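One such shown below:
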Amino acid sequence: MFDVRYVTGTVLALLVSSSAFGSPDLARSKNCVACHHVERKMIGPAYKAVAERYVKDEAAVAKLSEKIIKGGAGSWGQTPMPPQPNVNSAEAEILVKWILSQQ
């Protein structure tokens, strides 16, 4: 026999970890790559530049997750980042953690 709690916990752990490792795919599926690139500036800043700017900011995950969902302007020049209503808060957090790992 198997313990349902063990199987459930294992499945949940795999889902969470695969989401974190799937962030490039998530970024593509949410069309983030239309404006952002890992290494070079496009319409928006490069992910590496974002990671460098926020590396020591303990509030970065919450701050940037909110900016993804609600949009923002002025942090990286005159071009605003439009709100991304197709990104939920869990997805935004996964994306931000992946972006911040790009240093």
Notes: DSSP finds five helices and no strands in the chain. The two ends are 46 Å apart (CA to CA). The domain at 23-100 is CATH 1.10.760.10 (Cytochrome Bc1 Complex; Chain D, domain 2).
